[in-house]
Specification:
Blueprint (H helix, E strand, L loop, with lengths): L14 H23 L34
Length: 71
């Protein structure tokens, strides 16, 4: 008895469409991620964000940022 496989026409998306969509999503997410991680000006130069640390490291007892031992 011969095994014949009948190909059924499924409702799957064409591979070209899936690959194109994947490239679009990846590229879009990459650009969003890079714009957040590496901010730049109009000419493309990197702009260093301001530091969020607004305190000092000192040995005063009331200070929440104490220096590491031995420093």
């Amino acid at each position: 008895m011969t095994d014949t496989k009948i190909k059924k026409k499924g409702k799957s998306l064409p591979p070209k469409l899936i690959i194109g969509l994947g490239k679009f999503v990846w590229t879009t997410l990459w650009h969003i991620m890079m714009s957040r991680l590496a901010p730049r000006n109009k000419s493309g130069e990197y702009i260093r964000p301001d530091s969020q640390f607004r305190n000092v490291v000192s040995q005063a007892e009331a200070n929440i940022y104490q220096p590491a031992t031995g420093r």
